[in-house]
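From the pipeline queue, job 12 of 40. The input is one protein chain; the requested action is below.

Action: predict structure.
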Amino acid sequence: MHDIDDKIIYIGKAKNLKNRVTQYFTRPHEGKTAAMVSHVDHFEIIITRTEKEAFILEMNLIQKHLPRYNILLKDDKHYPYIAIHKVKDPYISIARNTRDRKCEYFGPFPESTNAYEMIDILNKFFPLRKCKNVPKETCLYYHLGQCLAPCINNIQKEKYDEIIANIQEFLKGNNSKVVNQVKQKIKEYSDNLDYENAESYKKILDSLNHINDKQDVELLNSSNIDVFAYNIRQGYLSLAVLIIRKGILIAKRNFVYEIIGDLNEFITDMISQYYQFNTVPAEVVVGNDDVISSLQEYLGIKVSNPNRGKIKDLVMLAQENAKEGLDEHFMSARLDDDKLEILEQLGKLLKINTPYRIELFDNSHLQGSDAVGAMVCFINGEPNRKMYRKFNIESENKKDDTSSMREVIERRYSRLKEEGDVFPDLILLDGGIEQINAAKEVLKKLNIKINLAGLEKNDKHRTNSLLDDNGNTINIDDNKQLFFFLTRMQDEVHRFAITTHKEKRSKSMYKSIYDDIEGLGAKRVEQMNKAYPTMDELKNATIDELKQIIPEKSAIVLYNKLKGIKWVKK
């Protein structure tokens, strides 16, 4: 569906196009469906050979065009897994994907803290190596009894197999042995009046109890299943999913959206989008018979809706979670539902078309050092983190925020123009008329027309008004919804800019004198550090001495760098 400006506002699919499209215009609608229908100007139709083809095309087009009336599931994180690396000397680690065939994976863990909590416990009680590469000498973990030290010992495969089997049992929820070990440690340390270590193991016991509390559903076998159910209230649908791995309920997720269009298509789209970002399990259970065939064809796995038994109990549990999700939503999250309406208000205030795509900019530096620019992108009022961008400020005067903003705006939009990419409907700047004028100059130079506005602060450094591109002040203090909406955007670009600056500053702190010198890899740097353990010794080295360890060309570059001489490549 296209609006009058030829923007795609909705993408859908149907076996019977006439019936599907007719129902939008012959039945009464309310909320977002009514708003969508009122904006339709014309249709574009694509015919596919199969329903699965239509599914895939629909998902791809939604991700590409981000239409304002399609749901965009906010679930684009890569959830962590615990990986057992089954190599010669096995070890465990956190993994963000499941591509390595030499690993066995447990998860995913939607709450990443749970994964890190779990791996800390595993590392304490199962003595596999902690290092990714086996060193040549023992480390602290060996002396603590937490590593078998394959660096100095030849560990038998049978021993490793036993440890891995115990880890597998632990990750399946059978952790009573470890709980007993922890309790014994607490008692031993307490009896010896070593309360510090006793407290440390008490925290581990609390973590184990926390894990056990979450594992309140155990199936009859080691199944990998996702269970979906939903609840509807006042035009809103809450979709809950229970994530079951190795027969254990490891997490619950919940998504609440205002229903748009046909209910079954809406549910199907939500579940399909969920699997754009998450691993498809062996089986999906969904509490709706009408969506089973579509999902089964698209996902290529078993999809069912059982009438009885333990799985049916899980569907009922998921429904309870969906109902609770709606309760929470109606109590606290209604602002999210009004985003399109707020964007329309913003467009009217600035006298521009509704800005469905907004890009915001901010700079961050410490007295001009490690200066960065940051850009965040909001589409349909939601942050789209895939489109965030970072910029290292290259201009000489890095303390000058206006100069930095001018540089970042030019780099951003000259590239979009060069690549023929989509421009935003509005650029929102965190500054006054100076920054707006700087951005106007750049856009004029690039021969690009994009709407501009600024967020202006009062004498208490609190945002209280908008500036249009002519410098006219628009008070937003009285419009609380718009004020909080813009403040959220402003806070997000601040957060991203500061985080980017801290990352750069952190890298600068650990930058080595050997960085950026061709021919100096990790091995040679290690040799140099052994030969010259202090900076004074290194500064006193001659070129001939340096040449004995590193190539002549690298030695000359390093020598000149140490003496503060700029080396020019001829």
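Job complete. The CA atoms of residues 417 and 448 lie 8 Å apart.
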